[in-house]
Amino acid sequence: MAEFTVVNAIALAVGVIFLANGYHMVRRGREDMVLFATSVLVGAGLIFVALFPDAFQFVATVLGLELKARAILVMANLTLFVLVTYLLNRIGSLYEKVSRLNEEVSLLRAELEDHRDE
C-alpha cells in the first residue's frame, strides 16, 4: 500500500484547483478548449498521482529507470515542456493580433484626422 504524505495532499489540492479553474472558465463563457483541456489534463494527472503514487514505479519500469523519482522528474519536465511550448505559441499569436490591431487603430486615427481637417 502506498504511503500518503503531505506532498500527496498538496498535489491533490493543486489538481482540484486546476479542475475548478477549468470549470469556472467554461462557466464564465471563456470557452478556449485548448486551455480548458490543458487545465483538465494537468488537474486529473495531479489527482491521479496524489491518489496512486506508486503508478510512477510502473512508469519508471517502462522507461527503464531505476528510481520512481527519476520517472516523476521526466514526466514533469515533459509536461512543462509541452505547457511552455503552448504558452510561447499563444504569446506569439497574441503578439501578432495586437500588432494588427495597432495598425488598424493607426489607420482609423489617420482617417479620422483627415475627416476633421475637411
Automatic annotation (TrEMBL):
<keyword id="KW-0812">Transmembrane</keyword>
<dbReference type="Pfam" id="PF10066">
    <property type="entry name" value="DUF2304"/>
</dbReference>
<dbReference type="InterPro" id="IPR019277">
    <property type="entry name" value="DUF2304"/>
</dbReference>
<feature type="transmembrane region" description="Helical">
    <location>
        <begin position="33"/>
        <end position="52"/>
    </location>
</feature>
<feature type="transmembrane region" description="Helical">
    <location>
        <begin position="6"/>
        <end position="26"/>
    </location>
</feature>
<feature type="transmembrane region" description="Helical">
    <location>
        <begin position="72"/>
        <end position="89"/>
    </location>
</feature>
<protein>
    <recommendedName>
        <fullName>DUF2304 domain-containing protein</fullName>
    </recommendedName>
</protein>
<keyword id="KW-1133">Transmembrane helix</keyword>
<feature type="coiled-coil region">
    <location>
        <begin position="91"/>
        <end position="118"/>
    </location>
</feature>
<keyword id="KW-0472">Membrane</keyword>
<keyword id="KW-0175">Coiled coil</keyword>
